[in-house]
Amino acid sequence: MNIFRAGKLAVAVTALLALAGGFVGVSAAAASQPQSAVTGETYVIGTDTTFAPFEYRENGELTGIDMDLIRDIAANQGFTVEIKSLGFDAALQALQSNQVDGVIAGMSITDERKLVFDFSEPYFDSGVQMAVAEDNTEIIGYSDLAGETVVAKRGSEGETFANSIKDEYDFTVKALADSATMYDDVKAGNSVAVFDDYPVLAYGINQNNGLKSVTEKEQGSSYGFAVNKGQNPELLAAFNAGLAELKDSGEYQAILDTYLEQPAPAAASGFFGLLGDSLPALMKGLGLTLLATGLSILIALVLGVLFGFFKVSESRVLRGLASGYVSIFRGTPLLVQAFFFYFGLPQLTGQSIDVLTAGVLTLSLNAGAYMTEIVRGGIQSVDPGQTEAGRSLGLGYVTTMRRVVLPQAVKIMTPSFINQFVMTLKDTSLLAVIGFAELTYQGQQIYASNFRTGETLLIVAALYFIVINLLTMLSNKLDKRFNK
What we know:
Elements: H1 2-32, E1 42-47, E2 56-58, E3 61-63, H2 65-77, E4 80-85, H3 88-96, E5 102-103, H4 111-114, E6 117-119, E7 124-133, E8 149-153, H5 157-169, E9 172-176, H6 179-187, E10 193-197, H7 198-206, E11 211-213, E12 218-223, E13 226-228, H8 233-249, H9 251-260, H10 271-311, H11 316-330, H12 334-349, H13 355-381, H14 384-392, H15 397-427, H16 439-450, H17 453-482
Helix pairs in contact: 2-8, 10-11, 10-13, 10-16, 10-17, 11-13, 12-13, 13-15, 14-15, 15-17, 16-17
């Protein structure tokens, strides 16, 4: 009996040990594959528009070292990213206004920026070089810059370095927004040299940007991924963990080699080759231009009619309200309004606004202010005797306006409405500064990677010219048909 019980006990102990071993095995497996705090999350990441080879467009797709890194880290850590190509300054403003969750844009880690942002571990050690136009034989070093003007990218390591030596070598530093514009400034002779991050400069030179480097690489800062200070610590931790794993696996080095090894020089293509390559992206931008214009004009027309009637109202309150609206939106630059609606308003309200909404708000409120004055002027241009005649026939104020005054005022206002429509279409180009991918923005993306600025802008200008003239012809025909 005791032997039987001992056997049963042994069997039970064996089973318990096996079960415990199973739990230990499961726990070990779970420990070997920890769940990230960001698994399944989606983050909006801001970046620059023109900083090849870190971020640039190729065949319409955003690519580069930064883009490959953030996408591979996201895949490694189990989260997804939505990339917003805004431009460096706009990306930082978008981060501070919580329009994006993080920024990766070849951003140097500095003590000043650490006061505002939290940075990841460095993912690239940069450096600065100076370049001049390839036919320039006079500038071969810093000592040749005395009395001259040089250019650097605003907020970049190149600008910091140039400013650190400008007094020693007696030159002036001018800051511009992107690399392509800087290189064009040097080629045009407005600046004698450019200071830029060495991989960006080397990439541009290899893509026939018309420059040549004339100095050795100066030691620069390191690049880091940034989030707002005290916010999204789990995203920052995931970036660091993913970066470490990419380095351990060799994927990190493979990404660098893809973009930093000496690439084949860009193949020369004629104007029509450039046109064929650029047209898909430009047509996409044109579509967004027309969409923003159409929505803005419809809203502006409603606002213009409403506040236009307020302006000629007998009510002092309504006249004051309309005058205030017109004064604000006619008295401030459109660019400031765009920045306010896209960056400032979210900071005040805590609610993010997508770029199309911010763009339409800007254009419609601005155009509405001008249309208000068009409506007011049109109504007041009708002979006051027409109103008196209507009232003498027993017609009320509203009926007199609708039946007598407005039909005549519309004929007066129509040419001005057409002109405002054209102005609003052209004003959409200003929305490129907040990352709205309209026609001008697409053109900037194209010449940022191929450095054929003049030809690209010629194509963009031609598209604007064709569309504006077609729409003007259509508007004039409608005017003749309904106002004859």
